[in-house]
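Let us work through a complete example step by step.
Step 1: write down the sequence.
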Amino acid sequence: PHFISFWKFAKLFLFYFFDAVVSFCHSVSLFFCLTTTCNRLAILYSQASTRFSRGNSEPDMVRSKAHPQGDSERPSEMSHGTGRVSKVCAH
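Step 2: predict the structure and record it as C-alpha cells.
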C-alpha cells in the first residue's frame, strides 16, 4: 500500500511539474514573439521615417537626375537588413 501511495504522489508531482514547465515555456515563447514583433515594427518605422525625411529633403526629380541607379540599389539594401534581423529573431 505504501508503494502505491508513493506512485500516486509521483504521478501527481510529474503532472504538475510538466504542467508548470509547459506553461513556463508558453509564456517565454509568447514573450519572445512579442519582442520580435516589436523589433520588426521598430525597424519598419525607422525605415519609413528615413524614407519620408529623405523624400522631403530633396525632390524626386532632383534625386532621379543625381542618382539614376541610386534608387534601384536602396530597396535591396533595406530588404537585406530586414532579412538579417528576422533570421536573428528566428533563432
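Step 3: interpret the result. Helices lie at 2-57, 60-66, 70-90.
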